[in-house]
Amino acid sequence: MTSTRQASSTDERALLEASRPRKEPLVNPSTALEANAHVQRAIDAAIAAGRETGLQVAAYHRGKLVVDAWGGSADPATGRPVTGDTLFNVYSVTKAVAATALHMLVDRGRLDYDAPVATWWPEYAAKGKGATTVRDVLTHRAGVPQMPDGVTPERLCDWDWMTRAIADLAPLAAPGTRTLYLSMTFGWIVGELVRRADPQHRSLGRFVREEIAGPLKAPDLWIGLPDSQVHRVATQVDAMRPIPAEHLPALFLASMPPAVALEPRVFERADVRRAEVAGVGGIFTARSQARFWAMLAGGGELDGVRLLSRQLVATLNVPRANSGEPDPVMFGFPLPITVAGFWFGGDHPPVCSARSPRALCHPGQGGSIGWADPDAQLAVAICHNRLFNPATRDEDAILTIADAVREALTL
User: Fold this and answer.
1) 297: Cβ–Cβ under 8 A, 6 or more apart, which residues?
2) Buried b / exposed e across 9-21, counting CB within 10 Å, b at 16+?
3) Is the peptide bond preceding residue 249 cis, with omega within 30 degrees of 0?
4) Helix, coil or strand: residue 345
5) What is the distance between the alpha carbons of residues 134 and 256, in angstroms, rounded to a whole number?
6) How far apart are CA 363 and CA 286, in angstroms?
7) Which DSSP helix (H) or strand (E) runs through 18?
8) What is the pLDDT of residues 355-385, one digit of tens each?
9) How far is residue 346's CA from residue 338's CA, in Å, rounded to a whole number?
């Protein structure tokens, strides 16, 4: 018998109470208000130029909220405006939150980076995957970028079907030997490790609600969205520049099959929003996401709440071995991935908006981004609803906004 794990739990009343928007005052009024105004002007200019539709930006500096700005339309068809409480699909930015849940269990002695995945998930050892370590998954060297045959939007919503099918995949390269970006499979592998290692065997979405979002007072980190919150979600505008099928790498298509592509037609379905699509299905606000990154920028702690030890956080931005290796899933680009499943900053392509090479970040399909720069003690989240794939830096409105944040804080 299969099941679908969703956002609701036995204490749904408490969950929904935690989801109510929380506003927080800007601190250091003169500096913060000037910074906020500078970023607001950049947002307004991007929208006026047609480079963005709806946009939110939140930033923390030295653990304090200094930017909380937004603009544009959450739904062009109805004219509904973006507010600070609008929710946005963030796609692969979700991976950073999922990886952090796993790191918390490592910190607690429940998981081990160097141990095989099959230690906790014996079925995963099938078809030559027995030696795959937790670290192999985090560094996208597990060898299983391909989605299971026969996957559909309905099956995306069936956690048990997805995890059984992924456990039964044959690796395309020996685990640990080659970089093959886990575009979608990452979420189910990490999420199932979290579920099995957690003493309460909570789903990833519930673990994030109870162990990250709640303690951080970041209520809008949703991996599995209750129906009661759908009215807050921004409608996506698909402005992606189409790439002819003959130019798409075969492994890219295998990792994100057309039937379940990262597109509004799939991810605006009610069942997909409701399900825990753990690697690409996050629906966040910039405010809550920025608090998550601020925790990482603060060495694992924010406002006296510690989620990760300072010692573990200090290891998260170490580049993985073979970080310059081309990834055939992602058009041959060498992806800037750390040993912990994050991307690191810098100006190398593909650019991650965080200029510091020591910054932790993660981009999402269509341009969403978040990062934590421990040196500058800066955390930034940018959420938007105009999915776009810029061909040049000059086309990238998100980079313009990111630069405006740094300019506003003279960083």
Assistant:
1) 60, 63, 372, 373, 374, 377, 378, 379
2) beeeeebeebbee
3) no
4) coil
5) 22
6) 13
7) helix 12-19
8) 788 899 999 999 999 999 999 999 999 999 9
9) 13
| Residue type (1 letter), 294 | A
Q: What tokens does 408 get?
A: 């506003």
Instruction: Tell me the domains of the chain and their CATH numbers.
Output: 12-94+203-408 (3.40.710.10)
Predicted pLDDT at 243: 84
Bridge partners of 225, per DSSP, are none
Sign, Cα dihedral of 208, 210, 215, 220: positive
For 5-14, 79-88, 174-183, 266-275, which range has the lowest pLDDT when averaged over its residues? 5-14
What does the DSSP assignment read for 100-126? HHHHHHHHTTS--TTSBGGGT-GGGGG
**Digit-coded pLDDT (tens) for 182-238:** 999 999 999 999 999 999 999 999 999 999 999 999 999 999 999 999 999 999 999
